[in-house]
Amino acid sequence: MADRVRVLSIDGGGIRGIIPAMVLAELEARAGKPVAELFDLIAGTSTGGIIALALARRSDDGAPAWSATTLVELYEQEGPSIFSRPLSHQIRTIGGLIDEKYPSGGLVAALRRYLGESRLSEALTDVLVTAYETERRRPFFFKSAAARSEASRDFPMAAAARATAAAPTYFEPARVEAGGGADHFSLVDGGVFAINPAMCAFAEVRRHHPDAEVVLLSLGTGQLTRPLPYDDVKDWGLVEWARPILDVVFDGVSDTVDYQLAHLLDEGRYWRLQVTLDGGASDALDDASAKNLRQLRRKGDQLVADSLSELDAVLDAIA
Q: Whole-structure pTM over 0.85, yes or no?
């Protein structure tokens, strides 16, 4: 039985995933080791799930396929194509009102480039990625540990990433084939119940290692600050609330999980690194403009600079 389990949790947040990727790049630089060697379990939702899977992907020589620094570049290079839509799509969907806002082609292509044909069972360290099953109406978890013991749970990493990133109204749900192709799962972004998957990761550890000491680093993708004034929201209906309600749910769930874990884990065993999205950085999941990417990088730099002592404490605790 493990005496200590080292856990990394990464929030969802679309293009804002560049912020935790920058923190992890600093952590790798300070440790001189890849993230997959620093943690026993990496949990992620949506963009955090993509990061988790990419960092745990094994290359042909057995080393990590990607560094955190490389994943920062993923957001800068792939973000504009992931969050792009041709005029024909805008017209057909009436600007996203009657169908998903973005076609999934850019997202699928990026996931294939970064995750290839790798499967969950091949992960360098354990991963837990969240999604929600719309037909069975229940949370769904992609787990590398389950994939190693059950062939039917050994999904392609790219399929898991596509599912966890299927934010309602932004991308269409992912249809993921079950083992043997006899059935399928209809999956959307796990952020609908676990935008901050740290509590899911904590529960997973407690399930398998009830007596282990848990050390947990939780990374946010930016604290929302844009107000929703009463005079505006009091007259909103279904159309006006469709996308803002996602932000409200995501933000509330994320902060609640932080509150819970701060009371469950002793000081020196839990860290939540988060930065406020102000000063020109957009809180939109899909603002992949060059200007906003620069602002998000600035926020990532700020979070790193403000968290150096916490990062050193994390490294001491997981050493």
A: yes
